[in-house]
Design brief:
Four copies of one chain form a homotetramer.
Chain A (H helix, E strand, L loop, with lengths): L5 H23 L2 H8 L3 H7 L3 H26 L3 H27 L8 H24 L8 H21 L7 H10 L7
Helix pairs in contact in A: 1-2, 1-5, 2-3, 4-5, 4-6, 5-6, 5-7, 6-7
Chain B binds a DNA duplex (21 and 21 nucleotides) through helix 3.
Chain lengths: 192, 192, 192, 192
DNA sequence: AATGAATGAGATTTCATTCAT
DNA sequence: GATGAATGAAATCTCATTCAT
């Protein structure tokens, strides 16, 4: 058996934990499952993480930070609000596809309290970013005059819907482009 | 000890199970929690449901049936596609608010397979209903010419997003009316 | 529902208990199974028998008494030792076929102590009866000179083997006549 | 806490399980009893056996295989049918004495179906072995002309009777030699 | 650093027995 | 007499965590 470095072992645990928590939820996942998937002994996990809670909390934090950074970078480089929104939706959906179940899984369980602060902070940051874009779009006359906060919430909701769809009903995933079209142009035929 | 009728006890278990599963997820909920909430002994639950699985499966079925019936009734009585869509979104959101956590909770866990057939059938029926409305709207020139299947998926996704928001980020729930407005008119200012 | 007399209910319980204990053993049988089979409520059994132990003990006693009586009657009416032995084997096998599993089931379980005294007494009575016959056969020169006690044990063993076969390996039951033939040609004094 | 090797623990569980199942039957035996006897925690058993069923099934298989091998070896080395039969009876009885209660216990219970296939195969193999011997004995004129299948069944029945006697009525066990004598003088062709 | 046997607490499940009706 | 809902004790089983090696 070729020994792994401490770092490799740790990363292996993280990867497996993400996968297993995603598949089974926090309560449904077992340390044994994670250990087996990571190719480490059960006790071995405890060398790197104090306990199941800490392991899970770490994952939540890491994933949210990862996405935050990506989203913030994105907005730094795009000035046009239309492009920014389209990019945000696409990035989110791509990200959701990659980490889908975990995000969902961790949204619920354990009586609402698990990692709740971390998540709240994340959502607030995301919301502020999008709202800024929409406000800019309205100011520049690109977007219709609307309540930017409400529009932000709807857009975040749509992205959440995509995540949930990935998990619940993956046969009926919507196409990001079609989604953008609907958001931008709406369903009503205004030509008439 | 206050005796209840069999029916009352059963209903009490169902109500408590819905609540507890919603709060903690399938794996996180314990029969003891449910029993305590229902005011019955743990063993007593097993007089009414064969095991934890069956109890949960029953709830999923019941909730989905309940909603299906409501949605189908709704469409029977509304001919105008615009009204029908608005009504569907509002009904769904109202329903989601009522049963939120349970729906979410049950969407995930146990390696994707729990009650999957029941859910698939439900989604397909819902999809067919909405698609019919949208097609009708397109035919009558009320809605823009779009792919009705994709539009349906987006709308279902938006509703799912609402459900997920209720649970994940309840401080930032969007307003159904604002959501409808966005869906119908879109974000882009076409006057310009 | 046509009410049954107290006596009928009791008999119904006895019959069902015999069947269920036979099928599942003492520990494996449940009061619910017996109640269902007897067409009575679970609580109803307790009107007739103090508890599971008493019910089972009653059955053991009844069955053994029943057989004892039959066997003793048999010997009273038959003077010829050869006929007596043949009859005993046949009667035993017929009886075993009828009550097979129960007898077996009750032979074991519960750390050897359940109804042990009753059973011991029964076996000793049976043994005395057969030994008497064999002794008589030897005295009259019909049977070979052998140790009548050992011969008795072997014969009782053979009958037990039949019972066990009924249960364990019913496809390979031996024929009573063939069995008698085998036993007799070893037992009969052919020099005479 | 004295550490044992995995192998030792496993064997300890096997030994205790055999003892406890033998004493109390499948349903009557509890995992706690086995664990206590084996000097391990209840949960510890589940590290080695998936559940109670598997543990019991394993024992059945092991014991039957053990005996099968012993019996087959025996016949390989003995050509004389008379010696072979005597040896088989003696080996069986010796084996039965060692594993008596377990064999019995496992013959019954759980609605006849537990490990039934394994057992059927075992009995069929045993039957074939004995029948071959008896046929050989008849061919060589050592045994009387009889139906070898029926004779086989009777002999197997006698051995089963011994097993059952060990458990039911151990005070009245027959002597193997006496048993053989009885059987042989029926089987032997004395005209020759 | 790593293992994996072992534990103990707690989960699910079963069932003899009781008792209000 | 009879019911069957309900209980409580005990069974089976699971799993996070520990610890000797």
């Amino acid at each position: 058996m070729n020994r792994r470095s401490s770092k490799e072992s740790r990363q292996s645990i993280i990867d497996s934990a993400l996968k297993i928590f995603s598949l089974h939820g926090y309560a449904g996942a077992t340390m044994r499952m994670i250990a087996e998937d990571a190719g480490i002994s059960v006790g071995g996990i405890y060398l790197y993480f104090k306990n199941k809670d800490e392991l899970c909390l770490f994952l939540i934090k890491e994933k949210l930070d990862e996405f935050s950074k990506e989203a913030e970078d994105l907005f730094k480089n795009i000035d046009n609000p239309l492009d920014a929104i389209l990019n945000y939706i696409n990035t989110s959906i791509k990200y959701a596809k990659k980490n889908r179940e975990f995000i969902i899984t961790q949204s619920r369980e354990q009586g609402f309290t698990f990692g709740i602060e971390i998540k709240k902070e994340f959502f607030n940051r995301q919301k502020a970013l999008i709202m800024e874009i929409i406000q800019k779009g309205i100011d520049r006359g690109i977007f219709v005059k609307c309540n930017p906060e409400e529009a932000t919430k709807v857009i975040m909701g749509i992205i959440r819907g995509f995540i949930l769809s990935v998990v619940v009903d993956p046969d009926n995933l919507f196409d990001p482009d079609e989604c953008c079209r609907l958001i931008l142009y709406g369903l009503l035929n205004r030509d008439k």
